[in-house]
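Run log // design_07
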C-alpha cells in the first residue's frame, strides 16, 4: 500500500469536515448570523457526539463505582448484622439456660421446703462424673468449707440419690445408690415392710434381706427408714418395677427403679453436719 493510499481516508474525512463547515457558514450567513457565532455553532455540532460519548462514559463509570462502593457497604453491613444475630442467639441461649437452671433450683428449694429435716440443706452443682461398669460417683462443688462431711446424704427433687464418701475443701464425691457398693435401709410405704436397698452397678437397685413371704408388689413405693443413721426417715427412694419368686418360693428378686436419672443430674441438695 502506497503512502498516498494510507492517507486517503484522512484526506476524505478532512474534506467532509471542510464541506460541512462551509455549508454551516453559508447557511448561517444567509440567515443573517455573524461568522464567529456560525463557526462556534458548527464546532459544537461536530463535537457533540464526542462530548456526549465522554459524558456517557463518565456517568456510566461513576454509576459503576457508586454501585461497587454500595455493594461493599451492603456486604459489610450484612456481615455486621450476621455477627449481631449470632451474638443475640448466644445471649438468648444463655438466658434460656439460666431460666432452666432457675427452674431446677426452684424445684430443689420446693423439695427442701417439704421436709423439715432438710431445712439446713445447701444446693451444690455437679461438676464431674466418675461412671463406669463398677462405680457411679458424682463430683459436686461444695466441701468442708461448707461444713460437708463423709456420709452426708445427698438429694434431688425426686428424693435420695446417695451420700458423700470423700470431702475436700471445695468439692466432694457422692456415691450414688445405683453403685454396687451402696446400701440404704428402706421400708415399703404401703405395708411398712423393711429391707435393704442395694446398688447393682446398673440402672436399677435390688431390695434385699426381706422375709421370703414378704408382700411386695410392682408399683410399691420405697422410702428411707432412717435406721442406717445416714439418710433421714421418710424420703422417697424409688419404686418396685419387678418382683419375682424362685420356683421353690424360698426367695424373691425385687428390682427397684430410683427416682433420679443419673444422666440429667446438674444440681443437688446436701444436708451438712452441724
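design_07 sequence
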Amino acid at each position: 500500500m502506497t503512502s498516498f493510499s494510507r492517507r486517503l481516508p484522512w484526506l476524505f474525512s478532512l474534506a467532509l469536515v471542510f464541506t460541512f463547515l462551509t455549508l454551516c457558514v453559508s447557511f448561517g450567513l444567509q440567515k443573517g448570523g455573524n461568522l464567529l457565532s456560525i463557526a462556534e455553532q458548527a464546532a459544537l455540532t461536530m463535537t457533540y457526539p464526542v462530548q456526549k460519548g465522554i459524558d456517557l462514559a463518565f456517568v456510566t463509570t461513576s454509576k459503576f463505582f457508586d454501585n461497587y462502593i454500595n455493594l461493599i457497604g451492603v456486604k459489610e453491613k450484612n456481615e455486621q448484622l450476621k455477627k449481631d444475630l449470632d451474638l443475640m442467639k448466644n445471649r438468648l441461649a444463655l438466658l434460656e439456660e439460666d431460666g432452666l437452671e432457675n427452674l431446677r433450683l426452684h424445684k430443689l428449694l420446693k423439695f427442701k421446703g417439704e421436709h423439715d429435716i432438710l431445712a439446713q440443706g445447701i444446693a451444690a452443682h455437679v461438676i464431674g462424673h466418675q461412671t463406669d461398669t463398677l462405680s457411679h460417683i458424682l463430683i459436686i462443688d461444695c466441701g468442708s468449707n461448707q461444713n460437708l462431711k463423709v456420709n452426708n446424704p445427698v438429694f434431688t427433687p425426686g428424693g435420695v440419690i446417695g451420700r458423700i464418701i470423700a470431702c475436700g475443701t471445695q468439692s466432694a464425691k457422692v456415691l450414688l445408690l445405683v453403685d454396687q457398693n451402696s446400701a440404704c435401709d428402706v421400708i415399703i410405704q404401703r405395708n411398712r415392710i423393711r429391707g435393704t436397698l442395694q446398688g447393682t452397678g446398673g440402672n436399677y437397685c435390688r431390695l434385699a434381706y426381706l422375709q421370703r413371704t414378704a408382700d411386695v408388689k410392682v408399683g410399691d413405693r420405697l422410702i428411707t427408714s432412717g435406721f442406717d443413721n445416714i439418710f433421714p426417715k421418710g424420703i422417697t427412694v424409688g419404686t418396685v418395677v419387678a418382683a419375682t419368686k424362685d420356683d421353690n418360693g424360698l426367695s424373691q428378686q425385687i428390682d427397684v427403679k430410683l427416682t433420679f436419672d443419673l444422666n440429667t443430674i446438674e444440681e443437688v441438695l446436701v444436708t451438712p453436719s452441724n
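DSSP finds two helices and twelve strands in the chain.
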